[in-house]
Amino acid sequence: MNDYSFIFHSFQHRKIQNKVEGERVLKNNQKPKYKQIIDAAVITIAENGYHQCQVSKIAKQAGVADGTIYLYFKNKEDILISLFKEKMQQFIQNLSEIIAGKNTAAEKLLLLVENHFRILSEDHALAIVTQLELRQTNKELRLKINDILKGYLQLIDNILEEGIQNGEFAPALDIRLTRQMIFGTIDETATNWVMNDHKYDLVSLAPKIHQLLIHGCGNHH
Amino acid sequence: MNDYSFIFHSFQHRKIQNKVEGERVLKNNQKPKYKQIIDAAVITIAENGYHQCQVSKIAKQAGVADGTIYLYFKNKEDILISLFKEKMQQFIQNLSEIIAGKNTAAEKLLLLVENHFRILSEDHALAIVTQLELRQTNKELRLKINDILKGYLQLIDNILEEGIQNGEFAPALDIRLTRQMIFGTIDETATNWVMNDHKYDLVSLAPKIHQLLIHGCGNHH
Amino acid sequence: MNDYSFIFHSFQHRKIQNKVEGERVLKNNQKPKYKQIIDAAVITIAENGYHQCQVSKIAKQAGVADGTIYLYFKNKEDILISLFKEKMQQFIQNLSEIIAGKNTAAEKLLLLVENHFRILSEDHALAIVTQLELRQTNKELRLKINDILKGYLQLIDNILEEGIQNGEFAPALDIRLTRQMIFGTIDETATNWVMNDHKYDLVSLAPKIHQLLIHGCGNHH
Amino acid sequence: MNDYSFIFHSFQHRKIQNKVEGERVLKNNQKPKYKQIIDAAVITIAENGYHQCQVSKIAKQAGVADGTIYLYFKNKEDILISLFKEKMQQFIQNLSEIIAGKNTAAEKLLLLVENHFRILSEDHALAIVTQLELRQTNKELRLKINDILKGYLQLIDNILEEGIQNGEFAPALDIRLTRQMIFGTIDETATNWVMNDHKYDLVSLAPKIHQLLIHGCGNHH
DNA sequence: AATGAATGAGGATTCATTCAT
DNA sequence: GATGAATGAATCCTCATTCAT
């Protein structure tokens, strides 16, 4: 399954194609420099902040020369975008598989919230980068980020449509606004958690968030 | 009413007292330089983006010398913070007055969403600055912004507490999470609207958003 | 006596003439702003260094407005020059009187060294300004300083000429070079003392210095 | 001989090893950028004065980009310090070799004065920088300069100690004060020469200065 | 492919000085 | 005379990117 074919790798400038054959040959400590640099970028940007994170710092962390970065990425911005694309792609694939077998939309929504939180909880550096540093960019870059996000938002839309069809969700639901509520709520919760230095457990908030999203704050006895 | 006295003006070194008499005398083009610069900053930052907006551009737009900026603001960052503080203070006061006479928490929530959207709709430049440019800052600054936001979030909390007490809202509501849902949803909706170049009417979305926040996406017949 | 009439006050831009009549009227706490500013400058420049000492700091220390400085001094440089001129003038007058009654050139030289050191010892702030801060200026200003110094150097020359005539000093003495030795030695000694934070007694070095200047480092048994 | 190993090169971050092979290959116009920049700095600072000498001027004179300066020097101040360190190091080594073979302390002292004057005479730009521009700095920098000077002052001390031991100099000599006389005299003489636009011959003053330092101004028939 | 020395555009901020009051 | 708000020129340094090796 790949409903998310719109997330393709924009790697025209990459000189070496990461062919399946090519990767099979690589030893463990020889993981492709591309991923090596992305992993270094997550750590370095999380530690320093995007604007205080010089390309040379990423290069040092990745164990490559400054110039090597530019064999794999068009510019500094492209590292950030690629990083997000790469992580988002993995996230969406995992999430799709997790959700696949479930019957109800409500259950799928819970799993979405839970797993969103889990991914961030499992990688604090990544959480800092996506919740804080990724936003420190101009409108142009924000549009690219939104483009990458579309795959995730589509996942939400799918759940909503399924829920409406099987009667779990209100038939008159405005999909776009509901999606914005769901994503906005998850995102705000995650950002607060990061701003509070991850000092409480994020994943355990998922059921309550799920409850709020399904029933709202109203009193329905 | 002013529960939000914690939002005070940080401008201690300003020598000119804003006497009522003093202000009455001022011509339109002589409004205090402090506000003059803030207004210029909103326009200039919205047009250029925070990082592309040189202090000299703000000064030119404000009709003052570059150095004059530094008589009223500590540095470029302080302009951004002060701008947000100033606007937020006004917003919270207006909102407090609007909400004051209403009986139900639900009605108050609707007014909050509506007015939040209206403020942004009435000043597209301000919307761009608060939804996009204000975020392009490091964690330290984000903490200051959050501090200023507290007054607004407190307003939400007050509504929620009132709603719980009078039975409108679920008694078991987690105030913090619910506030994050409400703010997250409003914020995400507003940001999407800005990212779409304000091309649809934001205020008219308020009732639907309100409905979602109260009842969630579930089907409650 | 005033052989040093070449040290006149270059005060063309000073608005109020310090007439004798005018000064007689002044109360103690109303000493002319001119001296008030100079005293403030000595303290402030010594504390902060010439380049870190803003005109506004001097004004604050003197208890006057920034603009007032410019009623008494042409510019910041002029404060430094005037300060040195004022202090040097006093110094030369005092020294002249002290030396006047003495019979031998050697004794006069000793008194010169001693008093030079004593003046600096009695006012550490002044010592810092003359030995360190006054030098942090461009060549043009250094020429003006040298001009003011001429009065002092002339005093040395007079002693030397007298010493040669009465047979105390070597008849073939090169006045200019000897004066440079004397002044250079005193100045170097004083600067070292300031750089060492005045941590030893300067005045008590005078006899040894005097001995060195008269007899040199050679062994004359 | 190199008793002055305490003057080492502070340029730790320089990546290029000065291999003998490497240097042999270099054409004249390819001399290491470090020295290239220092030479440019001497000329440019002498011409413009330290404070009027923009880093970009030095870069232009050196034929490198502005940024290149900062690959070799920490900041503008570091150029000045390094320049002095570099020249002083050479000077001390040359002087040590020249003095090495001589028998009497008096002869060594004469050579020291002569060569001090000769170095300055041979490079008027360097003379301006060391006698005037180097002094236009704050106390912190002066301390660094003094530190570099220590090597030279030690040379003087060595001569004095030798002179005392072999009976040439007075046994009761205060080394520190005598060193201050010698250095102060040389320095004052040199500064006067620079302030007079090098318009007379400095080196030929050495014997007279030497005579003064050894015998003082007194009349010893 | 990989390197890293070299490049050079770009901007926030300070502070001596002025001048309307 | 005194004030102090306003002015605006002037510059060091960073760091993303290139390209010769």
Automatic annotation (TrEMBL), chains A, B, C, D:
<keyword id="KW-0238">DNA-binding</keyword>
<dbReference type="InterPro" id="IPR013570">
    <property type="entry name" value="Tscrpt_reg_YsiA_C"/>
</dbReference>
<dbReference type="InterPro" id="IPR001647">
    <property type="entry name" value="HTH_TetR"/>
</dbReference>
<dbReference type="Pfam" id="PF08359">
    <property type="entry name" value="TetR_C_4"/>
</dbReference>
<dbReference type="Pfam" id="PF00440">
    <property type="entry name" value="TetR_N"/>
</dbReference>
<dbReference type="InterPro" id="IPR009057">
    <property type="entry name" value="Homeodomain-like_sf"/>
</dbReference>
<feature type="DNA-binding region" description="H-T-H motif">
    <location>
        <begin position="54"/>
        <end position="73"/>
    </location>
</feature>
<feature type="domain" description="HTH tetR-type">
    <location>
        <begin position="31"/>
        <end position="91"/>
    </location>
</feature>
<keyword id="KW-0678">Repressor</keyword>
<dbReference type="InterPro" id="IPR036271">
    <property type="entry name" value="Tet_transcr_reg_TetR-rel_C_sf"/>
</dbReference>
<dbReference type="InterPro" id="IPR050624">
    <property type="entry name" value="HTH-type_Tx_Regulator"/>
</dbReference>
<protein>
    <submittedName>
        <fullName>TetR family transcriptional regulator</fullName>
    </submittedName>
</protein>
